[in-house]
Design a protein that fits this description.
By secondary structure, this protein is mainly alpha-helical. The protein has one domain. The protein is built from five helices and no strands.
Amino acid sequence: MEKGKAHIWKQLVCGCAVGIANSVFGGGGGMLAVPLLQGTGLSARKAHATAILVILPVSLFSFILYAVRGIYDFSVLVPTALGVTLGGFLGARLLGRIPGRAVGVAFALLQAFAGLWLIFFV
């Protein structure tokens, strides 16, 4: 993996793009983070796992900014958080067992499905 100031700047620019996407779209920064992290030299598995790590602080910061403006709905917090926690646990266990190429293909299909859903049903 490359080192030095150029690599750090590349990571900083990628992180900025992820933060903007996550804040503007209320999520989805991870979908951008994965290919960008792979572009900095991480393997597919490490990129997926690292995306989770980097999304946590930006999601928390974004929520604080939204909460200050009153843009939230706590009524969905508990059931959604429980589902996300269970899904995150199962997904993390599953990620270690799926070949990297299959993870990439499944991820691309999920992105395509989400995009088509937004175009045709929202």
